[in-house]
Design goal:
Layout (H helix, E strand, L loop, with lengths): L2 E3 L10 H7 L8 E3 L15 H9 L12 H8 L6 E2 L4 E5 L9 H19 L3 E6 L3 H10 L5 E8 L5 H8 L5 E7 L2 H13 L6 E3 L5 H22 L4 E5 L4 H12 L5 E6 L4 H8 L23 H7 L3 H7 L1 E4 L2 H15 L5 H13 L5 E5 L7 H8 L7 H7 L6 E4 L8
Parallel strand pairs: 4-12, 5-6, 5-8, 6-7, 7-13, 9-10, 9-12, 10-11
Antiparallel strand pairs: 1-2, 3-4
Helix pairs in contact: 2-3, 2-8, 3-4, 4-5, 4-8, 5-6, 8-9, 13-14, 13-15
């Protein structure tokens, strides 16, 4: 299996391992597989989630130096449950049982174990730059903390993350440093990209969803989850995915292209609408991000749109495969309360975007809303709406009680290296 850049115009090919270590292609594009492989014929659900995900990933590492280590990496990285909240076919996939109570634990842990293995074998060191609008930075900091041959710099926008997310971003020491940037998430993401393009800086990589090693595990849990759903209900589900930087949704499209039993994919966006506007106008225009209650989705220039454009290169193909709807803050609050009043089920603001889209726009009976974070991470939003406190998961409680360490900087990537 070989990988190319989304901007490739020549014959530059890369292995999976090299793509993971580089993070960004030399031309500034994102790595994509030369072709999407099929799910292996030997695929089985009988050995549990981590093994199913390992099987889904294996074709992407065919002939790679990590191929023989992949089973061990998956066993270690995916060591937590991947449950459904079942509701008669209108189910919710709960992806927040990892160490930082967010779906990004899957990709961050896979990437950390993979990079550490590769760097140890090569006797090399890397500095990881990661921009976050909320959950990514905490997941990366947790996954990479204490890993050999790796240093991590986490960038997040000042005043734009929830209080408990802030604790997860700043409660680290040793090889993890945190930077509170005077700007938006898009400024943080721009700083990372500019650093990569600075030829005077060396041995840099990324742990954002622009990194192939973050995206592939997301593809793998859609193969697993859709297969479990099909086994349970006998039908292919519609997946409704809260979307910001669009890596999670891209993983679902790759899973569907592999042959996973997915009927269609719907993106649930907040007030940041570059994708919904592209669908309506046919003109894609990045813009400054808008602050919302679903802060991890506050992205005005989603990086992974390049990967979606690689799959669906013109507006007709895009419209034929991608549906997206925007959800306001008022509708987020209304949905959290509505769901709780109906069933006692508590959801976070991002999951509420998905649930609102399901209720307003998805007519199929068989559907899955992807729940991306534990609602306890957003207690200041959720608890007043449901009228009670939310129990804090043990892993989240432990991180919350670590000392906070962060350096405040302007939106200039040079300050990361001064």
């Amino acid at each position: 299996m070989r990988y190319i850049s989304t901007r490739a115009k020549g014959d530059d090919y890369f292995s999976a391992s090299d793509a993971i270590l580089k993070g960004l292609a030399p031309d500034g594009g994102l790595f994509i597989p030369e072709h999407i492989p099929s799910i292996p014929e030997s695929f089985t659900l009988t050995e549990g989630a981590w093994y199913a995900m390992y099987q889904a990933l294996l074709p992407f590492f065919e002939g790679d130096e990590l191929e023989n280590d992949l089973e061990e990496i998956c066993r270690n990285a995916f060591s937590f449950p991947v449950p459904f909240h079942a509701d008669g076919g209108k189910d919710t996939l709960e992806l927040y049982f990892g160490p930082t109570a967010a779906f990004k634990d899957f990709g961050a842990r896979f990437l950390a174990f993979s990079m550490e293995k590769l760097l140890r074998n090569r006797n090399e060191n890397l500095t990881i730059l990661v921009a976050t609008s909320g959950d990514t930075g905490g997941a990366v900091a947790s996954a990479f903390h204490g890993r050999e041959h790796l240093a991590v710099k986490v960038l997040f926008p000042e005043g734009r993350v929830a209080e408990r997310q802030h604790m997860q971003l700043t409660g680290w020491d040793g090889n993890v440093s945190s930077y509170e940037v005077d700007g938006t998430f898009d400024d943080c993401q721009r700083m990372v990209k500019e650093a990569f393009m600075d030829e005077s800086l060396h041995d840099l990589s990324s742990a954002n969803s622009i990194n192939l090693g973050r995206l592939l595990p997301q593809m793998a849990y859609y193969v697993y989850a859709s297969s479990i759903y099909k086994l349970r209900y006998g039908k292919d589900p519609v997946f409704i995915i809260p979307s910001g930087n669009v890596g999670n949704a891209t993983g679902a499209y790759w899973a569907k292209a592999m042959g996973a039993p997915i009927s269609r994919i719907v993106l649930a966006c907040n007030a940041n609408k570059p994708i919904t506007d592209y669908l309506s106008t046919g003109h894609y225009e990045p813009r400054a991000s808008i602050k919302t209650l679903a802060n991890a989705m506050d992205v005005g220039a989603p990086s992974n749109i390049e990967r979606l454009f690689a799959l669906f290169p013109d507006i007709e193909a895009f419209r034929a495969n991608v549906s997206a709807y925007s959800v306001s803050d008022e509708d987020i609050k209304r949905t959290i309360k509505e769901v709780y009043d109906e069933s006692g089920y508590v959801i976070c603001p991002h999951t509420a975007c998905g649930e609102r889209v399901r209720r307003d726009h998805v007519r199929e009976e068989n559907s899955v809303v992807v729940s991306t974070a534990h609602p306890a991470k957003f207690n200041d939003i959720v608890e007043p709406l449901i009228g009670r406190e939310i129990a804090i998961p043990k892993n989240l409680y432990e991180i919350m009680h670590k000392p906070s360490r962060a350096e405040k900087i302007e939106a200039d990537y040079h300050l990361l290296f001064s």
